[in-house]
Every structure is written in structure tokens, then in C-alpha cells.
Amino acid sequence: MLEITNFFELIGKTASLLGLIVYLIFAILVLRQVYAMTKVIASPLSWLLRLFSWVHLFLSLLLFFLALMIL
Amino acid sequence: MTRIKDLDNIAPDDFPSKPVSPPKPPKSSSRPPKSFSYPHPRREVYRLIGRGRNPLSSFLARPRSFAFDNQYEGEEIILILRRHPITNLSWIMGVLIMFFAPLTLKFFPLFESFPPRYQFVFTLFWYLITLAFFLESFLSWYFNVYIVTDERILDFDFHSLIYKEISDAEIEAIQDVTIRQGGLLATFFNYGTIFIQTAAERPQFEFESAPYPDKIAKVLQQLRLEEKQEAIEGRVR
Description:
The complex is a heterodimer.
Chain A: H1 2-40, E1 41-42, H2 46-70
Helix pairs in contact in A: 1-2
Chain B: H1 7-10, H2 43-49, E1 59-61, E2 67-68, E3 77-81, H3 89-100, H4 116-143, E4 146-149, E5 152-159, E6 163-170, E7 174-180, H5 184-189, E8 191-198, E9 204-211, H6 213-233
Antiparallel strand pairs in B: 1-3, 3-4, 4-5, 5-6, 7-8, 8-9
Helix pairs in contact in B: 2-6, 3-4
């Protein structure tokens, strides 16, 4: 019984981490896109949008490592 | 009868003239002389649109600190247009619903069967997705702009995160401008879609849900007139 629970937990953890890895890739894509957009149209808010996308990527990384530790 | 011989005393031929004084030198003044200047050719356009300062505005007139890729040297941005802010209402509502959705889990325990640490990670992940949705929607609104310069109209389209399309047409290539304004919200908040037929490679430009469509049409008309005037006067850049 314990082994079955461990097996399901392992699947749950792997699936969650895979999901977070996919999300990390998405966050990197957002960052790259924000840089591309601000290069095409330079505006006074460009720095803020870049900062926002960096924060988003940082939070994604943080959640990934958190999940790696506590799951 | 004696004749008067001194005829000059009776009817002098030469009138005595006043001594002519030499011309006075111009007064020295610290102010430089006024130079005559022609009225600015885009004065009418400037009068129509004024000047905007808010970078988040959907009708940004003559912004000082905006620039775009492939901008000609000396090319002036007349207008930066985005969709009317009211069109963002749907995704803002979506973000708010997503933000408060985890609170409803108290009433609908969907993740009750998962251990608490999983529930915690799922909740954080949900908020991260909410943040991404907000960021993506905002970026889509902010960067999908229509730019009117003194030389061209440009349409910047960023569909999703991986596809972009940038089209432009010279002002003199504009053939026809049509405004379509319909619906309760559009009438109330004064926005509409502007169709611009051109003789450029892209035959039609659409400024979707742009605010003050009649004003934009006037600006385009005025710019076309000026381009024609420039062509007549040989001031074509």
C-alpha cells in the first residue's frame, strides 16, 4: 500500500515539475518577446515592462525550486 | 510805367528747399530683428490633436519619447493609436475572476484529495498563470499600435508571443478612409474601426476600436492634403 502511495506521489511530483519546466520555458519566451517588442517600439514604459517580465521569470524559477524541495 | 526787373522776387522758379539731413543710422537694439516665418505646414493637424503625455493613452498625440524600428531620420510621429481602453474590460474581468477563484475552493474542495503541500504549490502556480495572463493581455494591448507619422501609417501586430507583423504605407498612397462605428459601447465611448484603402502592397489597413475615429480621419485627410501640397511645391522628402 505504501509503495502504491509512493508511486502516485512520484507521478504527481514528476508531472508537477514537468508542468513547471514548461512554464519556465514560457516565462523565458515572454521575456524574449518583451525585449523584442520594446526594441520595435521604444516607449517610456519599456524598462518597467522588462522589469515585470524579469520578475515573472524569477517567480517561475522560485516556484520550480520550491516545488522541487517540498513535493 | 516802370517794369519790375527783379522777376525772381515776384515768381521765384526755385523754391527754397530745406536742408536734407543725412539718414539716421538704425538704432542699436539688443533684440534681434524679427524674421518672418511661414506658418507651420502641420499647424492644422497640431491644432486638431494637441499633444499627449500619458504613455498609456490610446490616443497619444505627438509623443516626445516614443520611437519605432525603421523610423526615418526626421520622421515625426503624429499619432500613436491603440484599441480603446474599454475593450480591455473583458480580460481585466478575467484576471479578477482568476485572482479570486482560489477563494471559492473553500466551497468546492476540488483538491481536497491532494496533500496540503501540493495544494499550496497548485495555488501558487495558479497565481503565476494569472500574472502571465495579465502580462500577456497587457502587452498585446500596449504593443498592438497604429502609428501615423508625417510620412506613413504603420500597423504593428503582435499575435500571441511568437508572431509579429508590421505593415506600412506612405501617406500619399492612401486612397480612401472609411469609419465604421456601431454598437452601444462604441457610440458611448466614441471609438470605432477605421478602414484605410491604400495603393501600397497591403491594400487595406484597419485601425480597430480606435478612439475618436472622426478626428483620426480628419488628421489623415489633412496629412494627405499636405503631402499633395508638398509635391506641388517640390518639397518632397
